[in-house]
Structures are given as C-alpha cells and as structure tokens.
Amino acid sequence: MAAIEAPVVEGDTEPSPSPSFVAPLTVTNIDESQYGSQLQAKVFKLKELFREFDPPDLEVFESPPRRAPPQPPPLKTALKAPLPQPALRHLQQWQRRHVEVNELMEAVRQECIQCPELRNRLFQVNFHTTLAGDAMVTLLYHRKLGAEWTAAAERLRDVLAATPTAAAAGRRPHVIGRSRKQKVDLDASFVLERLRVGGREYVQKQVEGAFSQPNGTVCQHMLGWALDVTRPPPPRRVRARREGGEGGGGGVSSSSGNGVAAKEVEEAAAVVATAEAVETPGEGGGDGGEEEDVDGPQDDLLELYCGNGNFTVPLAQNFRRVVATEVAKSSVEAARFNLEANGVSNVFLARMASEEFAETMRSRGSRRRLEGLGPWEELRLRTILVDPPRAGLDGFTVELLKEFDRIVYISCNPETLHANLRAIATTHKIARFAAFDQFPYTHHLECGVYLTRR
C-alpha cells in the first residue's frame, strides 16, 4: 500500500493543515540495476547478525521487478515520509509498486486539482492493489464528509475505472472516504486477493485499514516456504483397529462474533473452485474400514498473530487442528471469511491477545473467548507459528515458545527476532532460515526461521 499527501493547489482557501511541508526537493529515481547488490548487502547483514546461532544456508526469495512504463508521465504529489525537517517531496512515479498504482496516483491528483470538494482538507491518500487486479483508494480528511463529497467521489471512481490497467481488467477500484469517527464506502472496503501456494489458488479478503502483506509475489514465497517446513510425513496405510470419537471436528469454530456473509463467501468460494484440486494422498480403496492413516497430520498448530488468516488458511492442511488467535476485530472477521471461502474446516479462531492466550495456556485455565476449544489435554499442540509486529514477542510469549517441539517465526524486524532467539537458544536450534525481500530498495528485510528442539 502506498500513501501520499494531498496536492496543494494555488487559490485554495482551506489548505491542508501541514504548513511546514513547503520546502521542495527532488527524489532520485531508483536504479533497478542496483537491486542485486542492494539485496546482497541486506543478506550479508542478516547473516552476520545470526551467525552466533550457526544457522543453515540462507534461502533468499527476491522481489519481482516492478511493473512500470519506461517513461511514465510526470507525477508530482507529496509523499508523507520521515524527514529531519518536514518537506514536500516531488515524485515522478511510485517506484516501489507497479504501473497500476502510478496510474491511480496520477488520476487522483488530476481530479483533486479540478475538484475543490475532493481536495478540501484532504491530507492523505492510501492506495491498496492486489495481484488479482483489485484496488482500493482511501482519501483521508480533516473534516466531515457529506453528500457533495459522495457525488465527487463517485465521479472519481469512474475516472479511476477508466485508467488503462483497471479498464483492461474490467475492474472498478473502490473509493473510500475517512475522517474522524466517519467512514464512507462507495462500494466496499475490501479487496479480494488470489494467491497461488503449493499448486492451489487461495482467495484472500484484505480489509481497508487492516494489516495485509504488501508484496503479493513475495507473500506467495513466504507461504510456500512455511507450508514446506511444516509438511508432515506422507500418510502410510496400515491395518489398524478403528478408534472413534477423536479428532478436531468439522466446521470453522469460533469463540465469538457474527457469521460471515453467505453471499460474499459463496462468491469467493467460486473463485477457489476454479483452481486446481489438491490431491489427497491415501484416499479410496480399503476393505470395510480395516485400514487407516497413522501418519500424516496428527499434530495441532498454535498460531499467534494470525491476522486475516494469511498463514492459517494454507497451513491448515498440514495439521489435525489449528488454534489461531488475533486481537484486531477487522482482521478476525476477514480471517473467518477466508477460512470459509477456502473450505478450511479444522481451525478454532479466538479473538484475544497473544499474551492473554499464552498465560491461559500455561496455566491450563479457561476464558470466555476460548469456549468450544475443548480440554487442553486433548490438544496436540507441538508446533507454534508466530508473526508478530516489529516489536517482537513479549517475554511471556517467548517463554511459551520453549514448550513447543517446532517453531515457525516470521519476522519483519531481524533485530527483535535475534533478541527473541537468544532467549530460546539453549532449547531450540534453527533448522531452516529464509529471507524474503518484501520491501525492495529499502533497508527492510523480512525473514523466517524454523526451529526444532535440541
């Protein structure tokens, strides 16, 4: 998602309340020929940071080249960026995203220049695009929005739909207006992404204002890597006496909240139904039920910070049952949608903080939000997946990691990951180590570690 500040137009009686953003400067265009060396430098720094843990060879997943015209039309907008002294930045294009964002930015700029209602006290514009071709544009204001704004936004929506990429795809970008304690949706406040992982296509609802992975292609690499490291042994058919009554139960269970809108789920599920079917080993045949799988998914997964179910949905196939937690309401609702839309039925989803869940699990206690989870002793939680914010894990959750045989830790901040790993270095070792270049041409580098008990 890209964010720009509102353009300043001479003659405005109510300029955006950012008077210090007045000193212009030029941003140097990114030299794509330097991508390899820049990534190499980030990888070297990452390896040095984790050298003390004696990790295996680093698996590196690059970001794809940006998709942009060789000579784009001039685009001058203000980019909100941390500077020693706030200043107005003039950009020719948004180098870090693809051509669609550049087209949408230019269209928004032109409309704001021509329409006082759109630019009146507008201070920021957010752009959210997907690999599937969906797009959202959110305009943020320091004023209340009324009927006149809605009419202007509808005209803007038509203009955005006429941009080359949107018109070619036959899609109309969603336009959203926000101000303090107010949100106006013209159509919808989410987009549907399609991610291909492990030979299957998944649909993913991404909600405006909620966290989602910013680089769809690299996200597919991350999911594929996590799917691989958690893959159980292939099923083995043996003669055995059937013992009924055990298992994770059918249906997506949840501790609280309303059901997912049936129409939206059906539409999303139709997308999934057109993708390739995943073969299920060990099906068919048999002689009256005297054989069963004794290998395959026998363990359960605990996932903290599950967000919209980005990892939950594809990884559920590797486990008997998944227990997932997330604290943000909008993300929990999106996760429920994504689970149902993709036909995932072995997940218990609880809206609660990771610290609260960790404390409850260690004490084998009970919480209202965990109703329906079942007795702790019936769970086989041997693998944990965490994808925390940049601050990393709190001390209580770090201690919880030590109770698991296998740990998958996805981090957007190698420094906090390093600190957390030091706390568990005596009990666990790194078995797989990966770098995901989610943010090309920046110093940021996403990474993942898969740890096993020593």
TrEMBL record:
Alphabetic keyword roster: Methyltransferase, S-adenosyl-L-methionine, Transferase, tRNA processing
Any Gene Ontology biological process: RNA modification
Active site residues of this protein: 412 (nucleophile), 412
Region (Disordered): 1-20, 229-260, 274-297
Annotated InterPro entries: MeTrfase_TrmA_AS, MeTrfase_TrmA_CS, SAM-dependent_MTases_sf, TrmA_MeTrfase, U5_MeTrfase_fam
Pfam family, one: tRNA_U5-meth_tr
Domain of life: Eukaryota
Family, as annotated: Belongs to the class I-like SAM-binding methyltransferase superfamily. RNA M5U methyltransferase family.
Gene Ontology CC: cytosol
This protein's name: tRNA (uracil(54)-C(5))-methyltransferase
Binding site for S-adenosyl-L-methionine: 213, 305, 326, 387
Compositional bias per record (Acidic residues), positions renumbered to this chain: 288-297
Gene Ontology MF terms: rRNA binding; tRNA (uracil(54)-C5)-methyltransferase activity, S-adenosyl methionine-dependent; tRNA binding
